[in-house]
Design goal:
The protein is built from 8 helices and 8 strands. Strands 3-2-1-4-5-8-7-6 form an 8-stranded mixed beta sheet, sandwiched between helices. β6 and β7 form a beta hairpin. The longest helix has 13 residues.
């Protein structure tokens, strides 16, 4: 992905956010964050593990403290990458709208928030709590995932809100009436998922080169994901 056209000048005041269950974190998450932080000049890029994910069953979900610890290990060698425990501390079901509200308050109006997600998550955005407000709180960057829906960008904006957007060629994004953009980008996403990792561990197979080495070690030491996934999704 080229560096422009994405948005205005880079530097301070542009932060990236990736929420997820990170059960466990894998190189697909890290590569996504690396490509987006570089091409959108995002610093810091913040990973936010959820406490209770609203859209997945919790069977097979590691405790949030353990998922948080794995993400901390995974980002430790990258000074741009940060981890926030905001959703774990808030407790209960983790709604992105509440997290983005809190981040906006914390960082102030001078900071632009770029909320990243893959197309498999974005395609269900109209099921999220207060989803229409999400488009007013942050720019959204939707990346294509190999196993995602593979739909053309213009068909992915929920029909209920499509009229609130117009295409802005100067940033190659759909601009909401609030001024926030929705970008669709191909970052060359890696074909790896947490479901795949859990399946490999449960089957006694190697997860090296799919997960950071430090996270592999933690998974082995704690004996995580030893049993077949009871259907978490
Ligand atoms: P699971 O397999 O358990 O459903 P997952 O691999 O999708 O998990 P999440 O923690 O749910 O991981 O992902 C957090 C965010 O990162 C979501 O927006 C998801 O779509 C995105 N994502 C996950 N894996 C990749 C990948 N390989 N490439 C790009 N984006 C990804």
């Amino acid at each position: 992905m080229t560096k422009a056209p994405n948005a205005s000048a880079g530097g301070p005041g542009r932060i990236g956010v990736l929420g997820g269950t990170f059960n466990p974190v894998h190189l697909g998450h890290l590569r996504l964050a690396e490509v987006l932080s570089e091409s959108f000049s995002l610093d810091p890029f913040i990973f936010i593990p959820s406490e209770i994910p609203p859209h997945k069953t919790v069977a097979g979900l590691c405790p949030s403290e353990v998922r948080l610890e794995m993400v901390r290990l995974a980002v430790a060698d990258n000074p741009r990458f940060k981890v926030s425990d905001i959703e774990v501390r808030r407790g209960g079901t983790s709604y992105s709208v509440e997290t983005l509200d809190a981040l906006s308050r914390e960082h102030g109006a001078g900071t632009e928030i770029f909320f990243a997600m893959a197309d498999d998550a974005f395609i269900e955005i109209d099921t999220w709590k207060d989803w229409e407000r999400l488009f007013t709180l942050a720019h959204i960057i939707v990346v294509r995932r190999p196993e995602g829906p593979g739909k053309p960008p213009e068909t992915m904006l929920p029909v209920e809100v499509r009229e609130a957007f117009c295409y802005s060629p100067e940033v190659d994004a759909f601009t909401h009436i609030s001024g926030k953009h929705v970008y669709f980008r191909d970052v060359g996403a890696l074909q790896v998922s947490s479901t795949q990792i859990r399946g490999l561990v449960a089957g006694g197979r190697s997860i090296r080169y799919l997960v950071p080495e430090t996270v592999v070690t933690l998974i082995e030491q704690r004996g995580l994901y030893q049993y077949p996934d009871p259907g978490a999704r």
